[in-house]
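Interim report, section 4.2 (structural modelling).
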Amino acid sequence: MSFNPLTERGIPLDRQLRSWSELNVQPYDPDGVHPYTRCRVIVMNGIEVESIMNSHNMARHVSDLGLKQQLALVRRAEQHQQRAVNWMIPGSESTLEVTIGYEQVAVDLTSWLARHEPDPYLKKVYEFALLEDFDHLYRYANLMDLTGERRKAEQITGDLTEILPGRPTIFQHRDPHDELRRPMTLKAAHIQSVLNGITILSAEQQTMNYYMNVGNRPTDPLARALYLEIAMIEEQHVTHYESILDPTMSWLTSWVLHEYNECWMYWSCFSTETDPRMKALWELHLNMEIEHLRVACECMREIEDRDPAEFLPERGFAAPLTFEQNKEYVRDVLARTVEWTGYDAQFVPIQQLPPDHRFFGYQRVVNQGGSPTEQVIDQHRTQFGSEYRRADGAPHPIESLRESGPGDRFPYAQAVANSEATTGVRVAS
Amino acid sequence: MTQEEKHSPVRHTFDKLQDVVGGMMGRMSASMVSSANQFVEKAALSDRYEIMAGRIALRRTKSPDLVMLAKTMIADHTASTHNLQAALEMQETRGVMAPPAELDARHKTLVEHLEAAPDDMFDSTYIDQQVLAHEEALSLLVHFRDHGDNPQLRSCAEAFAPVVYRHLQHCKALKQGH
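Predicted structure of the assembly:
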């Protein structure tokens, strides 16, 4: 199964505008929607936002009026697409329910990308952040249970994704230097690595934006605190993922790649969607994107005198991105890498950091007074006598992260204790 | 190294001369590197020397400016080391040789001269070596950035060349002040 958007004909730009009533789509049914249809809506909203913001930023850095006009035309159509996609989310789904959807996207999207990443270093980059988003899902699920929402988290995820601790959020707070990874180069990287990178950056950026917009809406202080702490990690993930993209690309190259990636993503949604109404939307948007890609490629030929065939594959996309279960894979990543941390562009077990490493200083500052992501679990235990977890039966692969496990034997907890003992400075509050 | 083992002022003068000649040769050879294996070797040696020299400086200098410089060198060249190691894990560098596990003879000599510098000449020795080492590193990075045979490692060189340029300017300014 393959698809080459460069050899297809799309919908001409002048026929892409839609009326308000067309854009104000009937939302999906929150009780009947397939969890992975919700995931596709969430991720495609993020893909459109990234594409639009990339276009805006590009427009701010070019003086060529003709190019600005083309960008504005395409961007308007992208704005319409974003509305049609994002308005699929019903108002009857609460902020927290949508949040669970965002975290399910983070877990199953990142897992798919990691499993299909041809570059061994970039695979580590995905696996590293995967365990952090996996933990966020568990923390929000506990909050959801505490706040007495009409549904539990597993009703949103459809039990397709386990809800268990990952790398605990309290230990995800790192010095900003330690979020910067080594970029791939467009010249030598596999095109799948480029598509993976733009896709995950779009998703994480949208997650950060969503939490920063809705995180102050709850009245419950713990809920507000939880959003602000996790939103900070999402910013770290944006920094982490944007740093793997080739920083030397021209604006036009970046535009072409964004359009190419949108074609891949809409084709993926179209190819894997089970809801006929959604499938029709994905197909419509794919046909729009084929034209956006053609326009961007034409601009590159005219303005830079370069042929996008220099970096786009002759045969198109090999396989669609698929939302599917990754339970065993996540468990495997947990078992292999839960104790990793970032040290500049490298990933190392936390025990390898020197006791006076900047990680411990940063932890001391931000976790002073406690961490809301720990408090939400403590409160759930106090109120219900246990935590909210959803697993298929097998115990958590990390003994110290089991509900009654010895938390003080977790490698991060031991590293913090060692740092405190060696430096005489208290890290944990 | 004990006080007795440190070099006399006369011997120290010869040490510095040897450092200068070695630095000039190093710079010349660095400015011709375009193969990935050679780049990895030289870049890794340069980072390792900077980290070792920085640690010696932290132990020996009493100058707050040099303490700051040494801390910056250790942090930045550790970051450079990690970037290079990350680059070598990538598919784009498949087949490129791993960096050497130890310093080469020339960098070992630099470290020995730094350790052996009399106390009252340590600061000037450290700064002089820093200028030489950064001139060599900058030549390596700029040449490989423009002519290297591996895109990923060229990208590494491009990322670190501005940092080394700023280090060099800073070291030259400190040298004028000492």
